[in-house]
Every structure is written in structure tokens, then in C-alpha cells.
Design brief:
With about 575 residues, this protein is an alpha+beta fold. The chain folds into three domains: about 25-295, Distorted Sandwich (Coagulation Factor XIII, Chain A, domain 1); about 345-460, no CATH class; about 475-535, no CATH class. It is built from nine helices and 18 strands. The protein has helices at about 1-20, 60-65, 145-150, 340-345, 355-365, 435-445, 490-510, 520-535, 555-584; strands spanning about 25-30, 35, 40, 75-80, 85-90, 110-115, 125-135, 135-140, 145, 155-160, 165-175, 190, 195-200, 205, 210, 275, 475, 480-485. The strands form five sheets. Strands 3, 4, 6, 7, 11, 12, 13 and 15 form an eight-stranded mixed beta sheet that branches. Helix 5 (about 355-365) crosses helix 6 and helix 7 (about 490-510) packs antiparallel against helix 8 (about 520-535). The chain is globular and about 75 Å long. It catalyses: [(1->4)-beta-D-glucosyl]n+m + reduced acceptor + O2 = 4-dehydro-beta-D-glucosyl-[(1->4)-beta-D-glucosyl]n-1 + [(1->4)-beta-D-glucosyl]m + acceptor + H2O. It is found in: Secreted. Its EC number is 1.14.99.56. This is AA9 family lytic polysaccharide monooxygenase.
């Protein structure tokens, strides 16, 4: 009986040790700003397996990990050239310090994949992946990438290429631990995860892509069987996978030999470069989403746009609380709404040359028929190009029927618009648009999901519309949101509000990923406070109605300092225990 118990204890300790030795991508930072533990991250919801390596290099889980095909509700905004920082933890909930066992030495890489929807299921495995950064063994520092990440408090930072097109992306950090690569059977261990982002960009580059897991890696590749215990190491390390896209039109030159990898779309068309350039023409700045997080590019590290140096972030970074992204994160409930309200009246960003062309086609106006059309008035500088109205001239709408104008060379000449059967006058005010223009905009909205964006203008799909922070969300825990209870003025209403609060609390805990449920505990405090007011017969409420209760998560620098302090305390504790044992 005692022997069995002892064996069980040893087995439990062995399991505990193995769990500690693994790791998990838990938290995304965008330009140093913490998005919150688990926010925008696809994650294995099983706390017992979430930090374990992928089982099999040909498993679909190689794309985004276990449960990686399940989209989450939130999508984090970023900009072309932004610095993305990925936090890895041994203890996924951050209850103890540590990123991964230092014996798990090996390389790192980061991949991206453009997707139609950031929150959709079943869009991870397959074609579309391209590498933006990798590092194997740093011969100058004498360290593997994983060990450098450990030294950097579990943070791995890379820059998004500055020239890739806007849209929804999955971003995939990858660690490869080689400590068991020489075992029989060989066991190279991959640790991967995916974050959902929306990228604001004026670029149009489309890097060549590969398929994951097919044609990605196989167990015989030198990079997967590399012996980290040989003395001296057989350097340079043969990095596996494709070359990293460097944002300059060709792949980054590999500094180490690479194992061959098949690409399902090596280079589109007949291009010999690593990206396909969209149709030529200047692209105006994208209209920034109204709810997008504003980031300061000066706060990023010194890494280049190819992410060539992933360790220039502050060295003293932290343990991230299980708090969530603040109000700057955008609203999910607006995900299915069109952006007409945000853009149709904003002539400076939405009504442009491309839209003017669409409207001209709609009314069949042939500009070549106008032998001397008058110039648009400066007061209407942001209206579409097909609006010929100005302060001094009335335009003959009979041009719609193909009739040529009378001599209009004189700006003060009035053109008889009586020939226009029922045509409405154009409004000279820049803020107003015609009915035809509105109809054209609605038509664009209906078809924009099926047509590519114009190379000369931004379509409305170039603004984030899904994965936003829901309106009225006052508490965030990972990808769950809590909403204010209904106002009340009597006892029944008070207890009804309390019941609603506790219902949301259960949902919070049920949906909490392994990163933790600390903010669910804070939500419980709100529910308990409601109960107290009801018991005190204070039947007007709720207290602090509509107040956002989500704590602001620590930024990258503060996170680093907290982690550093935790490691110092851990070291001091070990020293004290050794001293105690020595005395006794």
C-alpha cells in the first residue's frame, strides 16, 4: 500500500517536472503595449496539455497548436512595421517565473498567414504561410535563440514587414527544442501558437508562401536532428524551412545552410522575387480604424523591418498579469456591421478617385464628351471626382444622356439645366453626396468581399470590422467580455441584476483559458457588491454603472521588471534554503 502510494507520488512529481519543462505562448505585445493574457490568442483550453510540444511534425496542429483551428473573438490591431513581442511561460498562468527549461535549447522562427477572417475557424493549416524571421545558434553570443529568449524574460520580438498588404493575419511564433533530437526515436519538440491581428498597411507585397504542415518539415532534416551535445558544435546550424521574407522584394539571405523545403506557391506568376507586387500606382494612407490602438513607433526596439534582431527589447521584462487589453482594443460586436457610418461622410478618406470612377461608370458619364468642363470648386475639395459643381457654374446634367455641353470655357457661363428631365442639382457642399453616390457606396459594400481592393484607393474592407472590443464591455478576461447589468429602481430589479451578473461570472470562468481567470474574480467582486446593495435595500443602481473595470495590463517594460523581481526572489529563496541546510 505504501509502495503504491510512493510510486504514485514519484509519478506525480515526474509529471510535474515535465510540465515545468514545457512552454506556451501566452501574451501578445504590440509596439510594447500589452494586449492582455490570452487576448487574440488561439490556445489549447486544457491546462494539462497546453504547454506540451506538438505531437508529430505532420499534424495539423503544427500550424497553430492544439485548438489552433478555433478562432477566438478578439483581433488585435497592428501596423506595418510594428514590433510584435511574444511572451512564453512555463507556468501558463504566470503563477511562477520562467519561460522554458534552459536545457531545451534550439532555434526560433516567426511566420504569418493572411486570412479572409481573423476570427473564423479552420483557417490555420494549409497554404499561405511565410516566414518573417528566424534565428538558430548565435555564434557571437555562444547561445541558442531559445536561451536568448530566456535571458530576455521569455520575450521574443520581431518587426512586421513594412510593405505587406493590409488585412487579417495569423502570426505564429515557433520554438524548436533539440534536447531530445538524438533520442531513439528522434524527438525534436515544436512549441507553436497563433495570434489574430489586423494589419494596417499601405503596402501591396504578397510574400511567397508554403504549406504547414505539408511540405514544411520532416524528421530527417539536419536542422531537426542536430546534436546540441556534440563538442564542438557542428556549426553553422542548418536552419530548416524557407528563408525569411525581408520586406525588400527578395528573401533574406540565409547566413546558414537550410534544409530544402517545398513551397506550394513558390513565387506567383512568372516573378522571380519572393513577393508579388500589386498593380502599380500610389496608394493613399489607410483610414485608421476609429477604435484601433494607437502605437508609437518610436517606442519599438531597434530591430529592422526584417526582425533581424529579436532581442533589442528592454532586458528586464515581466510577468504579465492576467489582465486584459484596455479600452484601446477594438469592439467585437461591430464586427458584422459595415463601416458606412464611419466612412461615407469622411470625404477626405473614403470618397477618392477610385470611388469617383465607379460613380462615373454607374451614370455612364463620358468625360471625353466634355470639351471644356469647369473645374471643381475648392470648397468641395474632398468630393468625388465626378462631381463637377462649383460656386460659379451650374452644370448641365444632360451630359448623362451623352449630350455635349455648350461652350463652358467661361467660368461665369450658366448652362441651361432645363434639358435635364428631373435631374437633381449637385450640392456644392463637400459634406453632402448625391443619391447615386450613396447607391454606388452601398453597391460597393455588397460586393467588396468578393473583389480585391483597388490599387489606387482603400476599400472599406481595409478597415478592421471584426474582432473589435464589444461596445459596452466593461470587463475583459482573455477573449471574454462582461457587460453592465440593467438599471433598476426596485427590489425585483436589483435581484434580477444580481442574477445576470452571476450568470456572466459563470461564463467568464467557463471560457477562461489556461492563462487564468483573475479578472473573473474581479467580476465576482462586482456581483458580491450587487448582492450587498440588494440586501441593504438600496434598490437604485447598479453602482458605478458603465465603469470599465478591466485593469490596465502592464506594458513590456513593467512586465520585464516584475519578472526580474520574481526571479530575484526565487534565487534568494534558494540561497536561504541552502544556508539553512548547511547550518543543520
Amino acid at each position: 500500500m505504501h509502495i503504491t502510494a510512493a510510486k504514485s507520488t514519484l509519478a506525480a512529481l515526474a509529471l510535474l517536472g515535465s510540465v515545468q519543462a514545457h512552454t506556451r505562448f501566452t501574451t501578445l505585445f504590440v509596439d510594447g503595449q500589452n494586449q492582455g493574457d490570452g487576448v487574440c490568442i488561439r490556445m489549447d483550453m486544457n491546462a494539462n496539455t497546453c504547454n506540451s510540444p506538438i505531437a508529430g511534425s505532420q499534424s495539423p496542429e503544427m500550424a497553430c497548436g492544439r485548438d489552433g483551428e478555433k478562432g477566438v473573438a478578439r483581433v488585435c490591431p497592428a501596423k506595418a512595421g510594428s514590433t510584435l513581442t511574444f511572451e512564453f511561460r512555463e507556468w501558463v498562468d504566470g503563477s511562477r517565473p520562467g519561460a522554458i527549461n534552459p536545457q531545451h535549447e534550439g532555434p526560433c522562427a516567426v511566420y504569418m498567414k493572411k486570412v479572409e477572417s481573423g476570427i473564423a475557424d479552420n483557417n490555420a493549416a494549409g497554404d499561405g504561410w511565410f516566414k518573417i524571421w528566424d534565428e538558430g545558434f548565435d555564434e557571437a553570443a555562444g547561445k541558442w535563440c531559445i536561451n536568448k529568449m530566456i535571458d530576455n524574460n521569455g520575450h521574443l520580438s520581431v518587426n512586421v514587414p513594412s510593405d505587406i498588404e493590409a488585412g487579417y493575419y495569423l502570426v505564429r511564433p515557433e520554438l524548436l527544442a533539440l534536447h531530445a533530437a538524438q533520442d531513439s526515436p528522434r524527438d525534436p519538440q515544436f512549441y507553436v501558437g497563433c495570434a489574430q491581428i489586423y494589419l494596417e498597411s499601405t503596402g501591396s507585397a504578397k510574400p511567397a508562401t508554403i504549406t504547414i504542415p505539408e511540405n514544411y518539415v520532416d524528421i530527417s532534416m539536419p536542422g531537426l536532428t542536430f546534436n546540441i551535445y556534440s563538442k564542438p558544435l557542428a556549426l553553422p546550424y542548418p536552419m530548416y524551412g524557407p528563408s525569411a521574407y525581408n520586406g525588400g522584394g527578395t528573401s533574406a539571405t540565409a547566413t546558414t545552410p537550410r534544409s530544402p523545403v517545398s513551397s506550394s506557391s513558390a513565387v506567383a506568376s512568372s516573378s522571380t522575387s519572393d513577393y508579388v507586387q500589386a498593380s502599380e500606382g500610389t496608394t493613399p494612407d489607410a483610414p485608421a480604424p476609429s477604435d484601433a490602438v494607437e502605437t508609437d513607433s518610436t517606442a519599438t526596439d531597434d530591430a529592422g523591418t526584417d526582425g533581424s534582431d529579436a532581442y533589442d527589447t528592454p532586458a528586464n521584462f515581466v510577468e504579465v498579469d492576467d489582465t486584459q487589453a484596455d479600452d484601446d482594443e477594438v469592439d467585437e460586436t461591430d464586427a458584422n456591421e459595415t463601416q458606412t457610418d464611419n466612412t461615407e461622410d469622411d470625404d477626405s478618406t473614403e470618397v477618392d478617385a477610385g470611388e469617383g470612377d465607379a460613380e462615373a461608370d454607374d451614370t455612364e458619364v463620358d468625360d471625353s464628351q466634355d470639351d471644356g468642363a469647369e473645374e471643381d470648386d475648392a470648397e468641395a475639395d474632398d468630393t468625388s471626382d465626378d462631381d463637377p459643381s462649383d460656386d460659379d457654374t451650374e452644370v448641365d446634367d444632360s451630359q448623362v444622356d451623352g449630350a455635349e455641353d455648350d461652350d463652358t470655357s467661361d467660368d461665369d457661363t450658366e448652362v441651361d439645366d432645363s434639358q435635364d428631365d428631373g435631374a437633381e442639382e449637385d450640392d456644392a457642399e463637400a459634406d453632402d453626396t448625391s443619391d447615386d453616390e450613396c447607391n454606388a457606396e452601398e453597391s460597393e459594400d455588397d460586393s467588396e468581399g468578393d473583389e480585391p481592393a483597388s490599387s489606387s484607393s482603400y476599400s472599406r474592407r481595409d478597415v478592421q470590422i471584426e474582432g473589435l472590443k464589444p461596445e459596452g464591455c466593461i470587463m475583459v478576461n482573455a477573449n471574454w467580455c462582461g457587460f453592465e447589468v440593467k438599471s433598476y429602481s426596485d427590489e425585483n430589479g436589483c435581484w434580477s441584476a444580481s442574477a445576470d451578473c452571476w450568470t456572466q461570472s459563470r461564463a467568464c470562468f467557463d471560457q477562461a483559458p489556461p492563462t487564468g481567470a483573475k479578472n473573473c474574480d474581479l467580476w465576482n467582486d462586482k456581483c458580491n457588491n450587487l448582492d450587498d446593495t440588494c440586501n441593504a435595500k438600496q434598490f437604485t443602481g447598479p453602482p458605478n454603472a458603465g465603469k470599465d473595470l478591466t485593469p490596465t495590463p502592464p506594458d513590456l517594460a513593467e512586465t520585464a521588471s516584475r519578472k526580474l523581481m520574481a526571479l530575484v526572489k526565487k534565487h534568494e529563496s534558494h540561497v536561504m534554503r541552502r544556508a539553512y541546510r548547511a547550518r543543520h
